[in-house]
Specification:
Number of strands: 29
Strand content: 15-25%
Helix content: 25-40%
Oligomer: single chain
């Protein structure tokens, strides 16, 4: 339903906000004279057309209000060197293509029928973000001279005049945003960025008017920014304040302080309060796939129920499905819901929900692999399940663009893993005649194993999405499904009506050359995850990549059956990660329990030794933003011993594993015998590319062979790198 906002800013057409996230499309602030040295042009310096196209697709999908990625108000606030900034008229002009493009889209009011079919122009706010001590450059500043654990640079304390000039920079940035055509700004006051750093004693050691033990002093910086912005932009401009309602760090804000700040932000002129959860340095996951859906809506609800403010409150974090959003709104937990990554995965999520097509939504699985993992290393973001995200101008998929007799091809796709599904559905959408083969009787490939891992339940949704899309394309006569069909070289040669064969047959587990590896106690990860092979209580896992961690997680935490995303228990999750549900503890983090509190009932059901050949930390190659979560989860279990620098000598007649462990410091070698019930191989993969190999071999031996120029390999069958669904779907 629509939401009337205070002041003269009007009414939002619905309750869904596209939340801010870094994408790399926000431009940069590299000086013009430096650009040629970097191989860039001045046009590149000014052009935000990719950002405009990205947001236009989300506006067309019906979202009520869009918030951009963070834009700094000055150089010191850059997230990284020469990151996006808005402090000059020239920089302001570059944003007009974004605001003009978004405003060209009309959004239906409410459900599109209840308000006489009325529409309003799409709206977009620009987020103003000063990184503070999170800045990845030597100009970093903060409330005090401190160093963040996630940045290599120590921040310089802002002087009193520096604080005041920074306030002015925020206000000036907002004025320029309005001049550029933005409908409002979101002032980033959470996630541990600069404003948040002023709020807590942990990072604010000042003794002047902006620090000290008096919380009213510590919020003065935020109050002056919001009040000054409201005075400068008038009452026809949206001001969202992103308020950290739960810092998830030791000595963070108390609940009483959160309420005081909320009231102060409303009094200063904020239009909407958006919920912030957790500092970036917090050691509690907040948006990863293992976090239950809608996990932190209760925090927003608590503030709402206590009647602290009269302005709308927005709930955030792990809201990735319409029914989750609707339950939050209908349950009066919040006035608005924010979705960021879900709109990366499917720009039409609001439209599909409104039209009763929720089963067609390409659901965000919260993997972070192509969005945040990209953003934190300076790469343009995308999405594992939607590679077009942030590349809308490069990857344009026009339905039926190749449907004419001249362009249409008859294509066979072998394999229904991520790569095969992505290719088949894309080719059919373009208008080609596609037949899909798989020896299995269900689609999904190795996603059917991934979805079984505790914490990866969202992978069910990707299979559901492709299944729905394939059935829709089947009904349109564009796809023929041939499941339960084993495709061989002879089969391909006997079906010469196909113009192209796309081989997406995935990977095979790599068998390491260890004497005795054929012992019956030795299993592959496929034996365990797909075939439910019984596993004993003492286990050795060879390989500590993503698959090794997944298998360990499965053996420790998998219950009697696979769970769906909606079945995850929030109370259990909070207990596991030490989150204070009552908000009685500062920062919302409970004290860590002592090791001796683990009673017999809580003891793990297995003892696992996970090993790798390389010395050093296990799991070092896991996702940049999620790897620590996987390591912490296994550490909390008290069930897994991690050992690096291992040489695998043999598996003896008892099924025991003989190894040599090299100490990384002394280089001393110690022989060990692991008396285990099972050894599980997670030592990588090899491409399952026999069809391509046989086609190329026969074509060289047989002149004018039918398959010579018709076989193409994609996904894991092309290159086996872990279980790389991101690359597989992108290739598809």
């Amino acid at each position: 339903s629509p939401l009337k906002l205070k002041g003269a800013v009007g009414t939002l057409p619905n309750r869904v906000i596209m939340g801010s996230m870094h994408t790399g499309l926000e431009g940069h602030s590299i000086p013009s004279w430096v650009l040629p040295l970097l191989g860039k042009t001045d046009d590149d310096h000014k052009d935000l057309s990719s950002m405009a196209a990205y947001f236009v697709e989300r506006a067309k999908g019906g979202v009520g209000l869009i918030v951009t990625g963070g834009i700094s108000p000055n150089r010191e606030g850059w997230v990284g060197p020469f990151a996006a900034k808005l402090s000059t008229e020239a920089e302001m002009e570059r944003h007009r293509i974004v605001t003009d493009s978004v405003h060209s889209v009309q959004i239906p009011m409410g459900d599109g029928t209840s308000f006489g079919g009325d529409t309003v122009p799409a709206r977009i706010c620009m987020q103003i973000l000063h990184a503070g001590r999170y800045a990845m450059h030597p100009l970093a500043v903060s409330a005090s001279n401190t160093k963040a654990p996630i940045s290599p640079f120590r921040a310089r304390q802002l002087s009193l005049s520096g604080v005041q000039s920074t306030v002015s920079d925020f206000i000036h940035c907002a004025v320029l945003a309005k001049k550029a055509g933005y409908d409002g700004v979101e002032i980033m006051g959470s996630e541990g960025y600069l404003i948040n750093q002023f709020l807590v004693n942990r990072t604010n050691k000042r003794t002047d008017a902006y620090g000290g033990s008096d919380f009213l002093n510590r919020i003065k910086f935020a109050v002056e920014i919001v009040k000054g912005t409201r005075d400068a932009v008038g009452n026809d401009f949206i001001i969202i304040f992103r308020l950290s309602m739960m810092d998830l760090i030791k000595d963070g804000s108390s609940w009483d302080e959160v309420k005081i700040l909320a009231q102060a932000m409303e009094d200063a002129g904020a239009t909407i309060l958006n919920t912030g959860i957790g500092w970036h340095e917090a050691r509690i996951p907040t948006i990863a796939t293992s976090v239950p859906r809608g996990m932190f809506a209760y925090v927003t609800q608590k503030l709402r129920e206590e009647g602290v403010v009269d302005i709308p409150l927005c709930a955030t974090n792990r809201i990735n499905a319409p029914h989750v959003a609707e339950s939050i709104l209908s349950g009066n937990s919040a006035d608005l819901v924010s979705m960021a990554r879900p709109l990366l995965a499917d720009p039409d999520i609001v439209l599909k929900s409104r039209e009763g097509r929720a089963d067609e939504i390409n659901t965000c699985i919260a993997c972070n692999q192509a969005c945040l993992d990209h953003a934190f290393v300076g790469k343009t973001a995308s999405c594992l399940v939607n590679p077009r995200a942030c590349h809308e101008l490069e990857l344009q998929i026009t339905p039926n663009a190749h449907a004419s007799d001249k362009d249409r091809r008859k294509i066979a796709v072998v394999g229904t893993g991520p790569a095969g599904l992505a290719f088949a559905t894309t080719a059919a959408t373009l208008g080609h005649d596609v037949t899909v083969f798989d020896k299995a009787t269900e689609i999904g490939g190795q996603f059917n194993m991934a979805k079984r891992i505790p914490g990866k339940e969202e992978f069910h949704e990707t299979i559901r999405y492709f299944d729905t899309l394939l059935k829709k394309l089947q009904a349109q006569g564009k796809v023929t499904m041939q499941l339960g069909t084993c495709v061989t070289h002879d089969f391909m040669k006997s079906h010469q009506t196909f113009d192209k064969w796309i081989v997406a047959t995935g990977v095979n587990p790599r068998m390491p050359p260890i004497p005795g590896v054929d012992h019956p106690n030795v299993l592959s990860y496929i034996d365990v995850l797909r075939h439910n092979a019984p596993v004993g209580k003492r286990v050795a896992i060879i390989g500590a990549g993503g698959i090794g961690f997944d298998v360990a997680e499965f053996l420790i935490h998998h219950g009697e059956r696979d769970l769906t995303p909606d079945e995850l228990n929030k109370d259990d999750w909070m207990k596991e990660w030490g989150v204070d549900k009552t908000n009685a503890v500062r920062g919302g983090v409970l004290p860590s329990p002592d090791d001796d509190t683990h009673n017999d009932e809580a003891k793990p059901k297995r003892k696992i030794v996970m090993m790798q050949r390389k010395p050093g930390k296990l799991g070092a190659g896991l996702g940049r933003t999620t790897g620590w979560i996987h390591r912490a989860t296994l550490a909390k279990s008290h069930a897994v011993q991690m050992v690096g620098g291992v040489t695998y000598n043999k598996v003896d007649e008892n099924g025991y594993l003989h190894i040599t462990v090299t100490d990384p410091k002394s280089e001393e070698k110690v022989d060990q015998i692991l008396e285990v019930d099972n050894i599980i191989l997670c030592a990588g993969q090899t491409p399952h590319n026999e069809l391509e190999t046989s086609a190329s071999t026969s074509s060289s031996a047989e002149k004018d062979d039918y398959l010579a120029s018709r076989v193409y390999t994609i996904g894991g069958a092309y290159e086996a790198l872990e279980l790389d669904a991101k690359r597989a779907i992108d290739m598809g």
